[in-house]
Fold these 2 entries.
Entry 1:
Amino acid sequence: MIHPAPAAKAPPASTFTIEVGQGGSPVDEGAYPARICAVLDLGVQAPPPGGKGAPRRQLAVGFEMQGATTLDAELETPPVMFRRYGLSWGPKAELPKLLRALLGRDAAPGERLSPAEWIGKPVTCTVEHTQRADGGTSARVASVTRCVAKGLPELAAEPLVYPGAALIALPEWAQEAIAGALHATAASATAAAGYDADVPQ
């Protein structure tokens, strides 16, 4: 049984962005049906530079975006976008919202969940654009909700679960994050009632 630490205010959940390369455009804004294609345990990550809060265990979840479009390119395969989730359970935490989208209910306090079982699960991802300091545009997964679409295609991407997959098979940013983790252990999410503090290791 995991006993949560006293409640602590967490920094806003960070998200990965898709950088716009030369001649390319980010995924258009909008809501897309998606399937989870990757769940990566990044270990305990320090807050971003200038950020507040304690180090926190993080998962990176990859979403294969079905029917995604871009302004000036025709996508042959569905793009994959990632979002990081801290293992926290307070009212402003994002992980409980993801679990609600996956389970169709709130996770029960003390319930143990295996993130590897999320692979292939359908959700709906809302993509938003943000302006970078250099004037370019990036896309991010702003929210994840239940999927109401029917007949969603099966995954086109090779599923990735870490630990399990070879480290070299992960995206470069994930390899760097795992290499720099304060602690790297297999992910196991436990729903704790009313707390937004670190999950003890």
Entry 2:
Amino acid sequence: MIVWHVRPKARWFPHDWMASGAPLVLRCTAMSLNDPLPFRLKITGEDTLDWRGARSISYRLDGLLHLVGEMLTFEWAATRHTQRVSLSGVKDEVDESPVGTVEIPRRWIARARVRGGWWAPRLQLWAQRIDAFDGIPGARPGTLTLRIHRHDRTHAHAIAEAIIPAAAAALPADSGSLERRDRDVPRLKNGS
């Protein structure tokens, strides 16, 4: 798949750029499913204020999603930035963590969808198992949201479309049935 990104060389609005006659920068990117998808995970920080001063901790997690064969490989590196302000001065600390990696079979993914449009694109993954994304920071049970850059939207769409056939093939043959099976419902010890 070849994707052309066209943008003006200067940072102007489109109508200003057309009137100015500024040169265009054409960039051709050849993408395949073997190319990694860069992403960012959102982790909330914390702010505290006490008698010792103010402390603000923020996290930045950047990673790559690889789609290789029947496996999804997530790898990321985390950076923790701590700012302390007190009567004795201001201190900044930056801590880098080692690279984390989690591999998940494609058949464990129930749905994959690119959301957010142009402004805040993200790849959302829903798993068939509640523990599928265990170990990935910022993942909720059974769901994971990867924030992606705008120019990677087409690559994210291609990865989402490649995941969907594997997820559909992994469903059991009678998955179309919506009837409730009482044997699948967990029971309490008192029989209710």
